[in-house]
Amino acid sequence: MLPFLDGEYSQKRTEFKKVLLGISAERERWSQCVDLVNKKMGMAVGALFIRDNFDPKSKETAQEMILNIREAFNELLEENAWMDKETREVAREKANAMNERIGYPDLLTNPVELSKEYEGLTIHDDLFLVNILNVFEFEAAKNLKKLRQPVNKDRWTTEPAVVNAFYNPNKNDIVFPAGILQPLFYSHYFPKSLNYGGIGVVIGHEMTHGFDDKGRQFDKDGNLKQWWNEATVRRFRERAQCIIDQYSSYVLEDIGLNINGKNDTRRTKSGLSVMGRTIITWTQSYSRSIVFPQLCTDLVWLHEAGRCIEQSEIFSS
Which GO MF terms are attached to this record (predicted)? Predict the structure, then answer.
């Protein structure tokens, strides 16, 4: 409850976070509240967001991109040297069975169904802490109703207005909310080269999560199952360690620390590899209609590089 209290309680929390994490100040209260509402009432916020900030045509365009990137991913699987034939075939089945969730669930455009999401929840205009307690009680009751019930794998569990993308191993699905299907990552009106250099790299990145240290423990139906043999696991870890060592050798000179190569570097590199193959196939397929194919390819990488540089500047500020 401490994050939701004010005054001396909030100050003590700030002091603790400063010692533990080096954070010297909390975000402004309004920013915390916006984030809290989106996390706890994500579907309601998402319904408001998509009214003015999401073109329905974006779903169709993003779907086409996912199909092209999946095709490139399967091509790279065929060339994979560290998987044996049997494991490679199961991996292809998992990649083809991977579901995609784009933008938002249909209930956001249905006021009746959306209202049912919050039946039993009471919110007051001027009782913040009471509202928090009501939300906690509401969430606990909903979770208890799910106990021993079949899992609804079609249900969205991600807020549509969040700027992020996800892979869910227990559902074998990739999720691209409306919040990330925005410039600079994506726009229905962007040329394909910019979209592939933006959200395209993210799509490739999320697909590879299904085959990393965690994702490989789940099969195509999202069940916990070991489908890699020990020889494949060993070869994977040997190659992964090369990338970890490479990135861990880079030093951030401003702070004198090495990069943590165990983070998302492998998925980022894999996402770039998938995107590179997708672009080659795409430019070859549309070579007659593309006036400057090399320019299209260059724009993909320039857009991705520019986006990463901007993120670096944000995180370092």
Answer: metal ion binding; metalloendopeptidase activity
